[in-house]
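SAMPLE LOG
Freezer: B-3
Tube label: C17
Construct: single chain, 205 aa
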Amino acid sequence: MERLKTGSSKDKILEKSEEALDSGDLIVYPTDTVYGLGADATSDEAVKKVYEAKSRPEENPISVIVDSLSMAEKVASLDDDEKKVIRKMFPGPLTIVSDSNSYVSDRLTGNTGKIGIRIPGHALVLDLVSRLGRPMTTTSANITGGKTPRSPEEAIDQVGDSVEIVIDDGELDESDPSTVFEIEDSNVRIIREGPVSKSAIQEVL
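STRUCTURE (predicted):
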């Protein structure tokens, strides 16, 4: 495992992280909420490693990070309301759930046929996904049910043996995990409460 501090060369961080992801390995990375566990979301084998590292039941879905609306449209069948929310509210601490196009590994849907999509407010992570050219998994870098990792140490203590790269951005500000929601007939349904309220999302529609 190699630990790369964000104060060091950005190009080095992106290059080594991309190499790990391209090789089917896992990385730990910072977001605008907590430290995440990343893998190439289009690779069944890499996604399997994420579930194993977290001891996560395979029926529990895992979301993905995209860098843009255009990449999101490859991942899911987005309607006009969903596109509108992504345009107006992303990047940010939000995860929108929609019907999967099977562009990413079907394992990530937990057999629901749906996929969660994030565009976090963290420039380095978005640069990495853009450089990778395809989505990356986004799930907290912890054992299922374990402490939510807001520092590299908390992530390493739980999943360090399973990852090749840790992008160290220090202690993250206290924040809840992202708001998870879906839109049905222009109505917002909250799946997991988070920093953004239902009313704030509904106002966009």
